[in-house]
Design a protein that fits this description.
about 90 residues, single chain, OB fold (Dihydrolipoamide Acetyltransferase, E2P)
């Protein structure tokens, strides 16, 4: 094998070192919303003053006890659904 062949392999093997790393996706943006919790079937939504409605879900929170109450929720969006990490009743 010739020297140019080895030089070519050596240069091509380092190409991945010059790729731009993907953006840091570990830092999700938290969103806090305040509104009245409603339930339709098994789906929960937060009705925000002014007419907006946002679907909410959670892996850690149970919402049934808060239906009809004014609450504050903090979480992160996945698509159009806010996945709630914390929930607080507003009195």
């Amino acid at each position: 094998m010739s020297v140019p062949f080895f030089l070519c392999i050596f240069l091509l093997s380092g190409c991945s070192a010059f790729q731009v790393p993907p953006p840091d996706q570990t830092q999700a943006v938290n969103t806090t919303l305040v509104g009245t919790l409603t339930k339709t079937g098994t789906t929960f939504a937060l009705h925000i003053p002014g007419g907006a409605t946002t679907g909410i879900d959670s892996y850690t929170q149970k919402f049934d006890a808060y239906v009809g109450q004014k609450i504050s929720v903090t979480g992160q969006y996945s698509g159009t659904t806010l996945f709630v990490d914390t929930l607080r009743v507003i009195h």
